Amino acid sequence: MLIIFFRIAKNVYFCQMKVAEYNSFKIYVYADDHPPPHCHVRYSDGSEMSIDLPLLKPRYGETISKEVEKILELNLDELCKAWEKLNQ
Predict the structure, then answer these.
(1) Do 70 and 54 form a contact (C-beta atoms < 8 A)?
(2) In the chain, domain spans
């Protein structure tokens, strides 16, 4: 698990936690994000989708591949803990 901080402006930082990384996608949880609890799957082509936690249901009518779904299931506890840690 890797926490990354980005400086947006003077004394303003954006924080995200990379929970998992695979060949074609990475899974992130962002700090101070809006409810409901969710994670972001960022693909190597630059596209991104949001997945509700703990249901693992894609938001906005998107579809999720079996590969991504399996990885999310394997990392579900860690994803939920990351959401709680970054979004108290």
Answers:
(1) no
(2) 2-7+19-86
The length of the chain, given as a count of residues: 88
Task: Please tell me the pTM assigned to this model.
Answer: 0.79
CB of 58 within 8 A of CB of 68? no
pLDDT, one tens digit per residue, over 17-67 is 777 788 899 888 888 889 999 999 999 999 999 999 999 999 887 899 999
Rounded Cα gap, residues 23 and 74, in angstroms: 16
- What element of type H or E holds 79? helix 76-86
Nearest to 4 by CA among 78, 63, 45, 13: 13
List for the chain the helix, strand, coil content (%; round to 5).
25, 40, 35
